Amino acid sequence: MPHAEQICQQILRDFPQHAEALQLLGIIAYQVGDYRIATSLITQAIEIDSNQSSFFYNLGNVLGEQGRLEESIEAYHQAIHLQPEHANAYNNLGIALKNCNKFLESLDVFQAALKIDPKHHLSNFNLGDLYVKFNEIEKATNCFKKAISFKPNFSLAYSTYLFFINYSDKY
Fold it and tell me: What is the spatial distance between Cα 67 and Cα 4, in angstroms, rounded to a whole number?
């Protein structure tokens, strides 16, 4: 990571308005847990170039990590507006909505992600998790099973699936 950071800083010395370098520095700050700096750098990148879906997507991730869910929802919406086929943005939007207790909206968003990419293992898993909240255990286990089929080493999906097939009569 230090090498990537050095390269981005060199680019910014030569080209202070280089939006991609700012965004990459923001991602590096995000990965080391410095969310305030990450938010600032990615926001600067957006101020320079507001047509990059990835900038808004990464801003949504950073804001969500800080518990700033309404702002992260706005960022994911903007990412999707710029790139309507961005399944990861839909998935993360669905998570943010679920965390705001907007379960029906979240359901629609996860389903939209799966229309874009039916094999998106995280959207399948998150949709299953949402079905558990609706006490629709059969639908949930089907989603967990799909997630496993698309990513066989997805241990959380395995353990959740096994829990519900073994104890579903109790729910």
Answer: 28
CA neighbor of 122 nearest in space, from 113, 131, 134, 135: 113
At 77, list the tokens.
Answer: 């919406």
pTM: 0.92
| Burial of 71 per CB tally in 10 Å (0-12, 13-18, 19+) | middle
CA distance 163 to 171: 11
Kindly report, residue by residue over 59-69, the tens digit of the pLDDT: 999 999 999 99
| Contacting residues for 144 by C-beta, under 8 A, at least 6 apart | 124, 125, 128, 157, 160, 161, 164
Collect all residues with Cβ–Cβ distance below 8 Å to 15 and sequence separation of at least 6.
Answer: 21
| Cα distance between residue 76 and residue 46, in whole Å | 13
Q: Which tens digits make up the pLDDT trace of 76-100?
A: 999 999 999 999 999 999 999 999 9
Count of Cβ atoms closer than 10 Å to residue 41 Cβ = 26
Please report which residue ranges of 15-154 form alpha helices under DSSP H: 19-31, 35-48, 53-65, 69-82, 87-99, 103-116, 121-133, 137-150
